[in-house]
Write a structure and sequence with these properties.
2 copies of one chain form a homodimer. By secondary structure, chain A is α/β, with parallel strands linked by helices. Chain A has a single domain, classed as Rossmann fold, CATH 3.40.50.880. Helices cover 30% and strands 19% of the residues of chain A. In chain A, the strands form 4 sheets. A 7-stranded mixed beta sheet of chain A has the order 5-2-1-6-7-11-10, with helices on both faces. In chain A, α1 packs parallel to α6, α1 crosses α7 and α6 packs antiparallel against α7. The longest helix of chain A has 17 residues. At the A-B interface, α1, β4, α5 and α8 of A face α1, β4, α5 and α8 of B.
Amino acid sequence: MQVVIVAFDDFTDLDVFLHWDMMTRVPYLYPERTDWRVRLLGTEDTHTSMGGLTIPMHGTIEEAVDADAVIISSGKGTRRLIEDKAYLARLGAALSPQRQRIGSQCSGALILAALGLLDGKTATTYPTAKETLESFGVTVVEAPFVRHGNVATAGGCLAGLELSGWILEELAGAAVRDAVLNSAAPVGARLEIAPYRASSSTVEARGPGIGKNRAASRDGDGLGAAGQHRAKVGA
Amino acid sequence: MQVVIVAFDDFTDLDVFLHWDMMTRVPYLYPERTDWRVRLLGTEDTHTSMGGLTIPMHGTIEEAVDADAVIISSGKGTRRLIEDKAYLARLGAALSPQRQRIGSQCSGALILAALGLLDGKTATTYPTAKETLESFGVTVVEAPFVRHGNVATAGGCLAGLELSGWILEELAGAAVRDAVLNSAAPVGARLEIAPYRASSSTVEARGPGIGKNRAASRDGDGLGAAGQHRAKVGA
């Protein structure tokens, strides 16, 4: 399975890095999943975030054609890209909702709309992108996450957990989704310190089923049912 | 004001990038705060995360001496560093809880403990780091965030919002804290699309007081009181 995150200059930091972190937890928690690959794709060797961090890309947007899931990140850069016909042609040729899960984060919805992927659909986005998204004929709804088949939109940075969760469930199943999301929860939410065993802490980095951590009953953020999960990342 | 995030090889991605994102929202939301500076400090020109992302540092750990607040990130790398006397001497010489706010994320607590900054204190950490933290004589408590004066610990990646929130409030006030945290909330939580005005979307990137967004009443994650806030980042 390959998950691609599309980045560009002036991306919102968290809207790339939250997905990057969640997705790269899969091979860490499940080292047997040697087919799991996460890549950042752009148009240059590096792209610089709105916060000023320059990070390397793993390839170009054309390579999204090989992905099972594609996340379009967000930020001021989207406003420039929806006017860039060459960019849209390159990215559009690589995307197919028939064979890929495609999701946007915040103003990434503008790019999906510019590609025609939200035609006739409802969607969510960041508040500042609402009117531009509506100008594409998209009906904007007040929700953190909106999905129609293989195309989804997330609004608000932390709604990225729902977008990541959807892709994780679709590509790897609900157990993997819960393990990944719970491993990043705050202590006291779906992550507990107390049940952790010494026998597992010595091999914390490896092996499924090791380091299981009983989930707490609190489930206040709507991220789905808690269950047995692993607490090996974020160590 | 200068906020420093200490990184190293094998850092947990989100435990650097969440703080980086939150802290760099301040000058974006408040461009008049020209004194606000956020820097990543390490021991090399670049450091590589557990997820495999290589990012540039802005300086070396010695430069933390000039910081008003210091966040120690987390990850497998902490286990190596708490055995590295030279590293601890360098970092320890730069830190002072008398004049700085100092916080750790997840297993970053191990570094604080190795520096003696948690002596006689309770603290939280990531489940996998519990026993090592206890080996320093620290009492580990089941909580997302534990603070004693100018020294705080956060356990679980998303508890980083509490750590960032504490530093934002201490250095910039409660209004800035709320504006930053709310700007990253999911739509429907403390972020609403509907009240957003066209007149502000045209200048979304600049100017305090523009793009105010009424906060929703839901406040389910304990991140503090919601209020009037801005919705300009994450665009």
